[in-house]
Amino acid sequence: MSINILLVEDDDVAAEAVVRSLRKHALNVPVTLAQDGLEALEILRHQHPQQHIEKPYLVLLDLNMPRMNGFEFMQEVRADSSLHESVIFVLTTSDNEQDRARAYDKNIAGYMVKSAMGPNFNKLATLLDNYRNAVKLPGE
């Protein structure tokens, strides 16, 4: 299955590490980068001047970002009838139980702590490869 990934991450080093890991594991998936929740919403709503993403897609979302954080982004997505079915995985440095519970309350597909993803995000790449081969996403 072909899938597009919207990576919402304000840390350029972390974003590059994720992209490099996906390519290293031969996941030839288009990755669109957004610096924060506001930019991600513009991309999803096709309001961004340079970037867009097509279905099927999934979102890899950091929680701690400037302008619009991950929780605010999830609130907007779930309230938007054209975006509410978006598949969102949280990818964060926070291992806080309250953050995890709050994120799952927004119907995320999974909560991943960056430090537990293994060297070079190996576990993330493996998960996404298996996920795209096992599920049918909205828009397929």
Automatic annotation (TrEMBL):
InterPro entries linked: CheY-like_superfamily, Sig_transdc_resp-reg_receiver, TCS_response_regulator
Pfam families: Response_reg (PF00072)
Domain spans labelled Response regulatory: 4-129
Keywords of the record: Phosphoprotein
Gene Ontology biological process: phosphorelay signal transduction system
Residue numbers carrying 4-aspartylphosphate: 62
Organism domain of life: Bacteria
Protein name: Two-component response regulator
Record lineage: Bacteria, Pseudomonadati, Pseudomonadota, Gammaproteobacteria, Cellvibrionales
